[in-house]
Design a protein that fits this description.
By secondary structure, the chain is mostly beta strands. It has a domain of about 90 residues. It has 1 helix and 11 strands, in the order αβββββββββββ.
Length: about 130
Amino acid sequence: MLKALLPAVIFIPAFAAQSAPTSWICQNTAAEISCGDGACEVSTDAFTPMSITVATDASVSFCAYTGCWEGRAETMTTTGTRQNWTGTDLRWSQTPDAPGVTGSLTIDTKTKVGTVLIGGFAQPVLCEGS
């Protein structure tokens, strides 16, 4: 009887294992934080959450209000449970000929909490992997 159960015991963990996400979508649902000139302002109401999408193919999109900073991450790193994407030439979709900006997203893949720095925003975000 033990020999009959052994294949089932070995087979079950294969279904239980989850693969690492190939993309993440994050939003700042609790607050909007904008910083400049050595100070930050926090708004907890009357703001539109950002939508940030990053993927293992290095594509990044940081959307806020009427447009998105889009492009490719020049660096993608993983250290422990932290993943970071940084792009240094992200273009605003409404003015693609304007100079690019630097933007970064760091996610703790265990807690699914991240931080975003781009265009004067410094946001804590909640993320979902897919």
